[in-house]
Amino acid sequence: MILIVGLGNPGERYSNTRHNIGFMLLDLLIKENNPSKVKLSCDGELYKDSKYLYLKPQTFMNNSGISVAKVVDFYKVERIIVCHDEMDIEFNRIKIKKAGSSGGHNGLKSIDKHIGNDYERLRIGIGRPQNKEEVINFVLEEFNKDEKEKLKDFLEHCKEALKFLLNNSIQESQNKFH
């Protein structure tokens, strides 16, 4: 079974923020694939079809690893792909990698703490604010007008990259989408 995790924060207040782009991507996959909702006490919204588990942790970003660990402990998960916002990549670009550092991303830090860092990542570029002091506000703000106009197409691109990654190697996926 392959676990696909979309990172974000629960609640309407955060639904359209940069930090929730992982949730937005997972919502597209869930809508397209129509998996069944799973009733498992995992601190997250969990869906399942014949091949995949789809998880949206509801623990808030900084504790995402709690939810991921509960799903990994319950199911025989062979592969994990985490989809998350990435400030080190400009908006409208993605990168794919396996393992490595959290790069300061609190959701990844939490996952690393609970299950280690040997998982694949779809790093979804959201860009970076002008000043370092604005990082928290930046990720918790909605996309600006220009970004909103491009967001639907960007998320479709992310979905295609994820679908390609599910059926191909990291190297092939990097070559095609970087």
Automatic annotation (TrEMBL):
It holds the Pfam family Pept_tRNA_hydro. This is Peptidyl-tRNA hydrolase. Catalyzes the release of premature peptidyl moieties from peptidyl-tRNA molecules trapped in stalled 50S ribosomal subunits, and thus maintains levels of free tRNAs and 50S ribosomes. It is an enzyme of class 3 (hydrolase). Belongs to the PTH family. One of its GO terms (molecular function) is peptidyl-tRNA hydrolase activity. HAMAP family: Pept_tRNA_hydro_bact. The gene is pth. Its EC number is 3.1.1.29. It is found in: Cytoplasm. Transmembrane segments: none annotated. The active site is at 19 (proton acceptor). The record marks 85 as: Stabilizes the basic form of H active site to accept a proton. Keywords: Cytoplasm, Hydrolase, RNA-binding, tRNA-binding. Coiled coil: none annotated. TRNA binds at residues 14, 60, 62, 106. NCBIfam families: pth. It catalyses: an N-acyl-L-alpha-aminoacyl-tRNA + H2O = an N-acyl-L-amino acid + a tRNA + H(+). Monomer. The record marks 9 as: Discriminates between blocked and unblocked aminoacyl-tRNA.
